[in-house]
Amino acid sequence: MSRFIEVPARMLPPETLTALLEAFVTRQGYDTTDTGEGMSGWVAELRQQLDRHELIIAHDLELEMTEVMTLAQWRSFGRELADDEEEGDY
């Protein structure tokens, strides 16, 4: 069984999805004044990115954590994890 699964956004309650997207905005350091709509503007933009499959929601079954990631972050994360597993750091 894989440690990570991709979670379709449609499977999450709306308030949970919003909280994940807000955490992503905060973690990435986005300027919430850029959109003119504050945090809600960024959340709306990120929902569109999810629809376009530019972002994914990944759940770590071992750590029981769920994160929003760009595809580049996901690919980088996967490579780093694979390297750790090969070196026995996992």
Summarize the structure.
This protein is 51% helix and 17% strand.
- How many separate domains? 1
Broad CATH class: Mainly Alpha
Q: State the CATH superfamily name.
A: YehU-like
Structural class: alpha+beta
CATH topology: Arc Repressor Mutant, subunit A
Number of strands: 3
**Treating each run of at least 4 consecutive H or I residues as one helix, how many helices?**
3
User: Nearest-angstrom radius of gyration?
Assistant: 14 Å
Question: Uncertain regions: pLDDT < 50 for 5+ in a row?
Answer: 85-90
How would you spell out the order of helices and strands? EHHEEH
Q: Using the alpha-carbon principal axes, give the shape.
A: globular
Question: Care to describe what's here?
Answer:
Belongs to the UPF0270 family. It comes from Vreelandella aquamarina. It holds the Pfam family UPF0270. This is YheU family protein. With 90 residues, the protein is an alpha+beta fold. 51% of the residues lie in helices and 17% in strands. The protein has a single domain, classed as YehU-like (Arc Repressor Mutant, subunit A, Orthogonal Bundle), CATH 1.10.10. The protein has a three-stranded antiparallel sheet. Strand 2 and strand 3 form a beta hairpin. The C terminus is likely disordered.
